[in-house]
Amino acid sequence: MKFPKEIRRNCPWCKHHTIHSVALYKRGKERAGSWGARRQAGRKRGYGGQKFPELIRTAKTTKKATLRLKCKECNREMMTYGIRLRKAEIAA
Ligand SMILES: [Zn+2]
């Protein structure tokens, strides 16, 4: 699905409809020193290896696309609820 570059919608900070620029949300890089990563490293250390089955085939065939909307008046950003799509792109 193609999304327009700009959307007019309500801004909760300006409290009226304003023009928002649209961008696709991308997940950030995971920290190597986070508690989950350290716990998993501890589990995998020594003999024994992986402690729970690795996900090989996922049930879902699509990924959720989340939009980042930036208000052009107050420059605040908000995100929309993720919708399932095969392909999401911003119209050029
Ligand atoms: Zn605003």
Features of the shown structure:
92 residues; Nuclear Transport Factor 2, Chain: A; binds zinc ion
CATH class of the domain at 1-30 and 62-92: Alpha Beta
Largest sheet: 4 strands, antiparallel
- Shape descriptor: elongated
Uncertain runs are none
Question: Any ligands, ions or cofactors bound here, and which?
Answer: zinc ion
- What is the β-strand count? 8
Q: Which range does the strand content fall in? A: 35-45%
The residue-averaged pLDDT reads: 92
Secondary structure: helix percent: 10-25%
Give the helix/strand class.
mainly beta
CATH architecture assignment of the domain at 1-30 and 62-92: Roll
**Rg, Å, rounded:** 19 Å
- At the fold tier of CATH, the topology name of the domain at 1-30 and 62-92 is Nuclear Transport Factor 2, Chain: A
- The span between the termini is 13 Å
The topology string of helices and strands comes to: EEEHEEEEE
Strand line-up of the largest beta sheet: 2-3-5-6
Explain this structure:
The protein is mainly β and 92 residues long. It has a domain at 1-30 and 62-92: Nuclear Transport Factor 2, Chain: A (Roll), CATH 3.10.450. The protein has one helix and eight strands, in the order βββαβββββ. It has one helix at residues 35-44, and strands at 2-3, 6-11, 16-24, 63-65, 67-71, 77-79, 83-85, 89-90. The strands form three sheets. A four-stranded antiparallel β-sheet has the order 2-3-5-6, with no helix packed on it. A hairpin with a 5-residue loop joins strand 5 (67-71) and strand 6. The chain is elongated and about 60 Å long. The two termini are 13 Å apart. It binds zinc ion. Zinc ion binds at residues 11, 13-14, 18, 71, 73-74, 76.
